[in-house]
Design brief:
alpha/beta; Rossmann fold; 2 domains; seven-stranded mixed sheet; two-stranded antiparallel ribbon; 26 helices; globular
Amino acid sequence: MHLPYRSDIDGLRAFAVTSVLIFHAFPSLMPGGFVGVDVFFVISGFLISGIIFKEIEAGNFSFSNFYARRVKRIFPALITMLMTSYAVGWFFLFNDDFRRLGSHIFRASLFLSNFILWREAGYFDNAAETKPLLHLWSLGIEEQFYIVWPVILWAFWRFKALRWPLLAGLTSCSLVWNIYQSQLDLTHDFYSPLTRFWELSAGACLAFHVSRHPEKPDKANLISGIAVCLLVAAVYIIDSKKAFPGGWALMPVSGAVLLIYAGPTAWCNKFLFSHRGVVWVGAISYPLYLWHWPALAFARIVEGATPSVAVRLGAVLLAVLLAWGTLRWIEKPIRFRWQSALRTPLLLAAMVGVGYVGLACKNAGGYPARAIMQAQVEANVGDIGHDHFHAYYAKQFFPCADDRVHAKSQKWGDLVRCFQTQRDAPIDLVLVGDSHAEHLLLGLSQALPKLNIAVYPRSELPFTKSTEYFEIFESLANDPRIKHVVLASMWAVAPLSADERLTFEVDLHNTVHFLKSAGKHVFLLDDTPKFGFDPQRCKFKHPFSGRSICEESNESSQQVLASYVPILEASDLANAHVTLIRLNDLFCDAAVCRMALDGRILFRDSNHVNILGSQRIGAALAARLALSDRKFAFD
């Protein structure tokens, strides 16, 4: 059973996929284009739930038929894209990247991409731009919704009085949970199905209303106009700095709901969203969404940095051609012309095979015997990746002695990330901050071997207002033997706005005042640079280009530093026992930032130093500390 075709909904699909594509290829042109995914969720919830309502009402709903339709709709293009990505990865990806691709293919075959990306997210995550299957998080959430949604509707549909309260209640609960989590954990909020289900069920609520009131709404043109304003505003007002999805997601979701509700005869729907060219883009929107991100991601991986405008345009054009070809020669023949009882079982078997290929790649460590690995030539010595670095910490350092701080520390595998350099001696110096404080311990411990130095890392900025640091600051205040505290962090990934600078200044002032009042000398550190390329491109010469990439312009790094370093400097000048120490200058000059020096790579990912980098920082940092306090003088 199908709903009547509406060309304007295909037009809305075109708006959604175009917004996402522009954001991924040219983010400055449409900073909120990622909200197109939220529009897709609404469309899906409206169409699929509308079919379910009709079938349940008619008494012919079948779970097997429902899931068979999902398989026929989703699997052909997805299988094609996954296996093509695997084939491209075989020839172009280094071991770590190819192993990770295999893991992502395996999770994608189970529609669990959002969960692995959720687990990987954080300071030690590889750049999103180098994950060809990053975009499949949304497909995972959508299919997780459809695993449980038909069961819920079927179970409660017999209770007619409960239908609308059930739909509204579930939608409201998910929305409230989304807004609540946006204040606590944005990664959770972004990837969790529970915080996203309301977007699909918002479409379902509309489908339920339309099924009961199919007549054209009053003032349809006005409703449609408001919807367009909301959608356009969403892609330009919302950006990556907003706490998204949170309450901001109401803007694109409401816009999509209102546009669909306005109906096909509303002026905007009829003349804008039903235009022939727009509808064509909507028709290829699903395969275009699948293809566009791998095309851009592989281009970035091969280039080793953000591709040129011409390359990105080429990747977009390639994605459009692949989407059109997938629809014409794969999706339509399998979905509409291949009439066989074996169709669904064979598609399921093919997806199982795809999952096995991905899992085998993961377990084989990315197949190190591949030609690209045999052809690579080391350009700089030094470790990359995080395992070696954390293994050093596990072997050389002791767990931090403060039980409360230790208990709430994060982990790397089974390793609790809270360390001190001596087992039983009183602590002389504490590094407080995120992983950018943690990576200083190794070098500083070697430069100051007589001191007991501890590191208490968390994920947020090291300010007293953060609940993550409650036990840490309480411990520091209650231990008069600790006289010196270093605050270090990835203070910002982009230049701070005026409001963000004001908040930063207040939070820093309150934190410094708290530590000074507790009798501590506070050392403030700026940050190491964040590079736009993977350290593999610096450590090895790429077989296809024959060169390594180890430096980039200092312009973006200086813009970020300029937004917060003056605040650190002001705190240094205004307060006794507060000292600012610059780290960025160890890697950057006025023109460029360098990932490697004198044939030695100093970073293990785009922004964390490795063992050699920590040693370089430690020696310089120890010398600066010695200038501030004779306690740190070393022989």
